[in-house]
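Q: I have two molecules that I believe assemble together. Could you output structure tokens for the complex as a whole instead of separate predictions?
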Amino acid sequence: MSSNTSISTLVSDRIGLALSGNPILDDDFNSLALQIFEHQYQKNRAYQNFCLALEISPDRTNHWHDIPALPTEAFKIEPFPLVTFPMEQAKTTFLTSGTTTEARGMHYFRSTKLYDHSIVSAWHELNLPDARRSVFLIAHPEQSPQSSLSHMMGVISDQLATQSTWLLHQSGSIDYNSLISAIKDQQAVALFGTALSFLHLFDSMESPLTLPAGSWAMETGGYKGTKHQLTKGDLHQLFKTKLGLDSDSIINEYSMTELSSQFYSPGLDRPHQGPSWTRTRIIDPLTNTDAKPGELGHLVIYDLANVDSAMAIRTQDLAIQCQTNLEQKNTSFNLIGRDPSALPRGCSRSSDESLSL
Amino acid sequence: MISTPERIQLLTEACSHQEVQRWTGCITSDDLNAWLSSELGSALALDKFLPHGPLHSKAIAPKCILHIVSGNTPHAAFQSIIRGLLIGSHNIVKIPATGLHPFTDALEHFPKPLRELIETHNTLEDKDWLKADVVIAIGSDESIAAIHQKTKPDQQFIPHGHKVSIAIAYDDYENAAQLAARDVSLHNQQGCLSIHAIYSRGDSKHFAELLAMEMEKFCVNNPPSPISTSEAGAIRILRETTRFCASNDSSTQLWESKDTLNWTVIHQDEPTLQLSCLNRCVYVKPLPPRLDNDILGTQSAYLSTIAIHPFDKAEATSLENLSAHRICPLGKSQQPSLFWHHDGIAPIASLVKWKDIG
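A: Yes, here they are, computed for all two components at once.
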């Protein structure tokens, strides 16, 4: 058995154990994180070189906090793929969204077994609602095989749902009639979509619907590169008006192509919570140390399920460390959103906000 | 209406005040007279009919100019208002929601007759739009497009959109590095005239190393102004991404201020012009045998200034095919002459209309 397989199995088994009431507590997490760090350091020369440049190595690292986090941009650098296995073994590649002229991040998988296990196990560990009757406003994985979100929906459809309805046609149009059919027996449904796809659905609806009692929705993603700029409150209001769903019946999912685990926030103004095989830090970029409680910083995610790529990821998203539950100090955060400085700017781009005409 | 000589006198008085001069540079009445003569043929072109071929012509200033200014630096706001005041127009200035204190504070030092020609607003009402004969917009391309949509066909529209500047170091690296450090660092790289990348002939890595030293030296007497969490985040991401590349590929190299975010120098062999995340982060690249818009890539369309060292008219002329409207000596990129054609536009001549007799 290769070391990749053994570490994957180790993590997978431990995630499985988490489901039987043994969440991964800090010591356990630390031990697993250090093993994965050693594994990634040894198996991925590009990451090892990065660590060497920072003068950090596994033999001198005792805490997961100190494991070097790679910026998500590193996933875009094609000559140095972030994999711990020979590239020819890559069976699945998820790509970040982007235009044809933009470099797109690449996340390679030899197997998505652990990835899929992480999705389903988190669902149970975090007590997410019933998804047996699922309706998807997201492209089917066959339509969009390089989308990690479509893959996730496929996993939900295959492993959590007993009845799945896919509303998004290849052309991008929404099959509204299928939604009507899915709810005609008045049994609760789970509705999955990006915030944008929900807006398209709302626009295409001739009259409001009231979803059957017990229905709920999961929305994900923002409005990057579009004209839409809705607050979460405004979006929830539309859910109420168009589908009869209260805020408590709406869950926001936060993840990214570069990760193998997801974070969830129910309702409004509640923190995002990840499964016990993840930890987060909020780093104040001015000092490059942990942001003070209640202060804004960049979200850094440690995801044990990212065994085959990079476990420690520095995102370009701004967040505030959750203060409500000390036990969840490093597994939950209040997401503020995409850092406005994430894109390179020239003169006047920084001044856009000034032009409130 | 105040005559041109009177306005020149009042403007000279305003620009002699320290708080104004800091942004406008030293402006004398001779400068203003010469500027008007250069753009309009005579410093008195706005006051009387003057011979113009077989005709007699008089320049007519717009009654009202609406200046919509951006918040990145106050320079463009000062330049725009000085032009409007010099020709005697009434000026409505739309200030960014985040404020533009160096500008609004400095207006208090303008003599009363000039102050009476200026209104500043944080938001614009329909009447302000309707009053304007000319709309000058300084901002991002998206904002410029939005402003353009609001203008009426009879309103003259002068856009100053997104711009970037670059430099070329041909030789004399020590001096070039010192001058480049100044052009990169001033105003925390927030302006259109701030250098994002320096193309160096010869040993570009050596130049990058010298530049890093000069960036550090410049900081000693000119520390950067405080930056936001978001700006700091952009620098960290840039540095870590570059560190990842540099640790795997010798064509990329990183120099950074120790324990601070004061400055960052990145050497890359790849010649495509990349935008910096600002706040004293600059790319150094080898100068290709032929520098053209194709090599620079999509950002070349936004070039404002190319600062070169040593400055030589022949070298400068050889760059005329690039889209930049200004080629100047390195070390001067942030101080354009009063006479410069801002984004290729004659700033006074473009504002006036003419009345002919004969």
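A: One point stands out. The interface with chain B takes residues 45-46, 49-50, 52-54, 69-71, 73-74, 77, 79-80, 101, 283-286, 288, 296-298, 314, 316, 318, 339-342, 344-357 of chain A (CB under 8 Å).
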